[in-house]
Amino acid sequence: MSFFRSALLGGWLMLAAMMQAHAGSGAAPVEQSALYGTEEVTFPNAIDKLQLAGTLTVPQGTGPFPAVVLISDMGAQNRDGNVRGFQPLRLLAEHLSEQGIAVLRFDDRGVGKSEGDNNATTTLDRVKDVQAAMLYLRTRPEISAARVGLIGHGEGGNVGLLAAAQPMSPAYVVTLAASGQLGRELLTQQQAAQRMLSSADTSQTLGKRRLLAQQALEQQVASMRASGANAAQVETALAKYQLNQKTEAQNALAKALAREHAMLEIVRQNPDNAQVQAILANMMRQDNDQLDPGQARALAARRTTAWYRNYLNFDPQQYLSNVKCPVLLLQGLDDEEVAPANLTLLEKGLKANHAVTVQKFEGVNHLFQAPEAHWPVVENTPQPIFSYIALSTIREWVRQR
């Protein structure tokens, strides 16, 4: 039984699945299911001469089966796409394999059991890894070689689209919150948004923060009424409060964007990593006096990796016109890492492709978690689950390819 299905049932079944979840960067424990078989696999990237490791789940029964390769988001990701214990790629793989679709998910270079240096891995290097994964699946007798597709999350969606613009392309591509923006524009916005969140809020979804804001507003209204304010006075005060909040948020965002843009330009204009790291670490400590020197240097070092420097100039629009296979573009409207406006940019770039399907999901965030109102509660704590509407959309679309 998959983690997702046990989550819907709640109780001890879900708790047991959660206890088995792997929170580190290595491979997840091998799951057993009556509906699919699980195999630990390795396959070569012959171009860059390294071995990649992953998990292949194959439906029970007679093949050959359609198959997908899952592609993780940016950063050093394990095969499950683990983020604070939530494992979207694992949940997606288990659901699809229960429904008759083989799935290969693998550790990024330098993560888990895969060879290589993650910090030196560029977006184009990731394309080569995905091509190696597709080649491996096409050699498996239980897989239909003509029905091997790609499903990518975040940057993984862009990697999938870029692979589709190359020879030996996939049969189809599904993107989950892929970007249509120039790399440096996306990174500036992401870093500015993160800057605006307090450390206490970084694990809270947009839906949670909306709920807390609404509760604070209701408390303010109750306090005013208890003090004798009439309806008109309450309405006027609330309108003023909301306007002030909006203005403060806009000003804070503008300030954060300007600061992040300045830091990004330092990286772009100076090839000396040591100098850049020293400057950025100093700026970070000026902005946050709680940040110790070691933390600041570590954060600055991430902005001088080969991937980061390369991604600053990554333009998704350059190759989209060469994508000929069917494409499913998915986006959560509560996504704070990749703004939903990116969907429009991708559609525009793919306008010559007449096999593009687009779907947006209300209340779904960047990790494609269901709205919090739908989360099961275990020991008085809501536990995130993958949006079932998104899962069923992916499943049915892939079955038709």
From TrEMBL:
Gene3D superfamilies: alpha/beta hydrolase. It comes from the Bacteria. It holds the Pfam family Peptidase_S15. Residues 51-354 form the Xaa-Pro dipeptidyl-peptidase-like domain. GO terms for molecular function: carboxylic ester hydrolase activity. Keywords: Hydrolase, Signal. Coiled coil: none annotated. The lineage of its organism: Bacteria, Pseudomonadati, Bacteroidota, Cytophagia, Cytophagales. This is Alpha/beta hydrolase. Residues 1-23 form the signal peptide.
